[in-house]
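# nightly structure sweep
# worker-07 picked up a monomer target from the shared queue
# config: single-sequence mode, recycle default, output format = structure tokens
# input follows
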Amino acid sequence: MSEIPVLISDLAVILVSASLVTILFKWLKQPVVLGYIVAGILSGPACKFTPTVVDSSSISTWSEIGVIFLLFTLGLDFSFKKLVKVGGTAVTAALTIVAGMMFVGYATGLILGWSHMTSLFLGGMLSMSSTTIIYKALDDMGLRNQKFSGVVLGILVVEDLFAVLMMVLLSTLAVSKQVEGIELLDSVIKLGVFLMFCFIVGIYLVPSFLQFCHKYLNYETLLIINIGLCFGMVKIATLAGFSSALGAFIMGSLLAETIEAERIERLVKPVKDLFGAIFFVSVGMMIDPQLLWEYKIPILLLTIIVMVGQICFGTFGVLLSGQSLKVAIQSGFSLAQIGEFAFILASLGLSLKVTDKFLYPIVVAVSVLTTFFTPYMIRFSEPAYNHLDRIIPEKWKNLLQKYSSGSTTINQKSAWNKLLKALARIVGTYASVSIVLIFVWLQYVSPIITSHLPGWKGNILSLVMILALISPLLRAIMMKKNHSVEFQQLWNDNKFNRGPLISLILLRVVLCVIMVMIPVARLLNTAVSYMWVITSLIIISIIFSKKLKKQSILMERHFFTNLTAREIEEEKRATINHNFANHMLERDLHLADFEIKQNSPSVGKTLRELNFRKYCNVNIVTIIRGDIRINIPGGEERLYPFDKIIVVGSDSDLEHFRTYVEEKYQDYKSHLHPTTNEVSIEQFQVSANSPLIGKTIQESGIRDKADCLVIGIERGNTSIKNPDPSTVFQEGDLVWIVGEHSKLLRFCV
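# output follows
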């Protein structure tokens, strides 16, 4: 009798237990993630009553693949441009939460008598809310159009980046066994340069590659290519000394900037769901219920700390960023849990053997408890605000109102501010890419060249090739913004500005000289004086080369075309102008989009008949029908199935509108009596005494009275396909008709 490999039998146990338990959790209306963890406990070695996994090492491999796909899909939803767009509110609040919870978590660990490294990992775990759980909770509760939801989702975007960076930094600390020192600074710099390099080169190459292959990209090919790109970046990240999860996140964020991002996300989702389920089940497998009971006090303490700490720091951070007290409290209560990143950091600490074994199940238990309370905390946020609003002194209310309204005013940026920001972005970007290219070239490419062409010839060839590669980047560093509007304005406004402006140019030239000196000194064994001469000649030729100027402009244009391609495409299809929406969010108005269902009672009615302004205090400002956009529609405009309507109103008005429409739809649906009869093909023979003899198909009433369609007649040795309505029935005809079975019986005699 043949036996299946242990890996497959273990996978069978995992997936069967996961499917059964998650169905139960769906019925209980609880997050599926909790079901996976419970399934892991039941299929893990700690459970003695159910079939257990035999080879836990192979499951750790599956779970690592699950982490890769989780981070990859998280990157697809992230994108670096989204980070820029979330604004100061999200950044300020996220920094406050992460810093505050890191400190509280670390201090709590030390108070409980845990080691410094365990306490540090604990702080990281407690500082990250769950994107998946919050997004699902807001969606299920119909709160996605609320003002605080936009703030919360922006905070989660920033926290996702912090979480990925924290994984790298905690890994470095775990290996070096030091919490401070020059090694940590070195790691931070390396991480920053690596991220910058991957972003610039990735945006330049990946969208172009997908666009080049576009005509060959069916669903199968696109899926294989993108999973290949994901694991390719995983390999690059690990070779560079970073985690596989970081590589997956980076590739996801790069693909998020392409116009294929939404297709990729849909294709990868089933794969992510599968391996993500295996990961969360493996999380549960490492939990010992006896250990949970032993550490019940720390679990309850940490649960309280997470909920109270996230609420306090979240509320304070959002309030500090200039939002109103109500939005701040709603945001703080929504963030009161930890999720998938806590599991990933716990797994990381366990695999590196730097955290105590009891920390893993404790953090998972805290995550389960806080996740369970998430919907209730969101619902409780408004009553909490109402209670606080009643007890806060009027003087404090006025002060908070002035602070929040004052933070939304637009400050005029000075020319110096604009110029320095632009130069910092340009120099940081091109210098990072140049440094990484030089390092990779000297470390890997140059030895290959000199092995095939030894001596000075190989060194010169290698030097010429690396200089040709980085020279457009060096020219951009030295010459960009030297003729910009801000530069000219500062130069002409005040002669005292000219010294600092010239100094900025010279500093950039010096930076390029240093970067050129690195390969020159490495590949040319000459005196220092000759090196300076050679470097100076190279820099001068780069500055005055018209060909390099043209190439630099084309490279930058290509980069920004790739960077903005998805944004331009989304603007064409966008239901809401995001700039306008963000502007309105600073007031108590929102734009929200709703889709008209195909059997909605609103279908076919005019806006005047529906009169949403009267019943819900909202206005329909746009109707999107396919590629047609009807702005400020008139009262006689009718709604049709799958129309997207853009509605403007306050939080309460939009919620009232959503509830009103849903109630109308459910009421209309309850009065419908849909038929369950299916259409089938039947045949009957015209008998000698049939009333059909001598009648045409039209005269027989088969179509009009019985809703049946004659599709063929067999008469002797001939067949009539799709007969004309004037065809006369004859005795012995074999008639083929299509219709509902109950109605066909009238004629099939």
